[in-house]
């Protein structure tokens, strides 16, 4: 879920930047810029957390039995940090594991099914790494999918069942999470993009957490001396600061 959350935050940042590029009022630009900085800061923190988890992976719980290897005992570690991209033919998954290229070929395998895949990297520095990705957004050709090992990297090539089909997300779960939480941009009936953005900010305020509400309310309050009144953007009652 951490990887899914990171992908969701990246999509939020991209959409906010798209709204910023169309905004014309300085007040709206300020509000969007504040939220973009907040999301980007959260992305950096989450990336650092993922990096620490990858570098300082602890032995799994007692429910995961250690696996013996020639060099001693190995513990199962779930991979949580990876990236993905796509072309017309493939969905490519990139996994960074230091020194993975030094392992024997038999230590690395990947199981493919129509809507899932699971990478196994065994006996790498006393750990058995595995990356399960279930509920892929679309079907893949399990028989034609494969992987390659590069310096410190494993690249998994998922062959799309439908050539040139665009995947909006890697998994169905990520898509549902994003669609549920992403603010909806609805064009204004009068065709004014500024009004549409105002409506979006109103929704962000109503649906946001306390920190989001404070951020929007403070930014709004700092612009009260301008000619534009708060009546331009009907919003629910805000906390006083």
TrEMBL record:
UniProt-recorded Gene Ontology molecular function terms: S100 protein binding; tubulin binding; ubiquitin protein ligase binding
Coiled coil (residue ranges): 6-56
UniProt xrefs under Pfam families: CS (PF04969), Siah-Interact_N (PF09032)
The keyword Cytoplasm is assigned to this record: yes
Transmembrane segments: none
Any one annotated GO CC term: nucleus
Protein name: Calcyclin-binding protein
Organism per entry: Frankliniella occidentalis
